[in-house]
Amino acid sequence: MTTNRPSAELHEHPHSHEHDHGRPHEHDHDHEHGHGHPSGFKGWLHEVFVPHSHDAADSIDDALEASGQGIRAVKISLVVLGLTAAAQLAIVAISGSVALLADTIHNFSDALTAVPLWIAFLLGRRVANDRYTHGYGRAEDLAGLFIVAMIALSAIVAGVESIRRLAEPQPLDNLGWVLAAGVVGFAGNEAVAVYRIRVGRRIGSAALVADGVHARTDGFTSLAVVLGVAGVWAGFPLADPIVGLLITATILVLLWGTARDVGRRLLDGVDPDLTRRTRHALEHVEGIEQASAVRLRWSGHSLVVQARLHLAPGTTVATADQQAAAAEHALRHALPAVGTVDLTVTAHSATATAQEHP
Are residues 257 and 289 in the same domain? Predict the structure, then answer.
């Protein structure tokens, strides 16, 4: 912290707050969040088709622990997707279906989209340096952008293939095996989707949520296979491409919600509720009359906070220092994903700036 003492002479002295970032802060996070999501069946549909990261409203405190949980989620989901694809490959070997082989190869390649995210989590653990003075948190957002591109590619492939099958109907062979492979693919991908989205929300990672949505789109593609087989068995051979078009539309809905969340991160957008909670936390610290110039942005799954604190006239430099420390503590209590805090403290007789790096 640098302070300007309330005297005719301008004087500055450095001061820093030391924090142990090796373990999470212990706070009571019983906050009310005004997200206002729909409930009931409508809420379930919203949850499935437009999942979002909640901007880490309930995420864990420690950035290293969050990265560790993200890496663990990527590892576990890769194993599950690998087993799913292996099971489908066994069905291909038994049935001899070339179409199933192509779908299995597609699932193997899609599982590998988690690798860039894994690398991003590892990069995010590196400390800031003279070139990357803000650290490497943005690598996570770049991985999210790549995943969005893969979801878009899935939608294009599904749409083109469905239109081709409408124009040139092709008989489905080995219907029983095709159905079995579709069920396996849907179950494995949806399990991974639920897991990734849940962990992504907990650690505040929009990219991990996006990767969960990507797994869900693959699961929907497998579900289309199941519904198509059911339609053929019911005597409606065009059910397969028609269901494929419906799945394409579903993927586009998922793509919109995911691209929106990842795009907001890249543009330094945050949930307005986080800004309100930041201002509320600061202005309820004793001695702080107003908080202005409140700015928040994400760096990976850590929240960077900047604000100007206005103190009562006549506040001494020592008191300003104490109130800045109390304000930082209040922020970490209200927003558990907080990383770097940069506070400027002003009063008619005292001015101070506090900056803390995780």
Answer: no
User: 318 with 253, same domain?
Assistant: no
Closest CA to 224 of 254, 179, 269, 192: 179
Q: How far apart are CA 348 and CA 6, in angstroms?
A: 8
pLDDT tens by residue, 37-85: 455 545 444 455 555 554 544 444 456 677 788 888 888 988 888 888 8
Q: Contact, 21 vs 341, CB < 8 A?
A: no
Domain of 280, CATH number, reads 3.30.70.1350
Same domain, 250 and 302: no
> Are residues 186 and 326 located together in one domain of the fold?
no
- Please tell me the distance from the alpha carbon of residue 159 to that of residue 252, in angstroms, as a whole number: 10
Determine if residue 221 is left, alpha or beta; phi over 0 gives left, psi from -120 to 50 gives alpha, anything else beta.
alpha
CB within 8 Å of 350: residues ≥ 6 apart: 3, 4, 5, 6, 311, 315, 316, 317, 319, 320
Whole domain around residue 329: which residue ranges?
A: 271-356
CA dist., res. 324 & res. 347, Å (int): 12
Number of folded domains in the chain? 2
Q: Is the entire prediction scored with pTM above 0.90? A: no
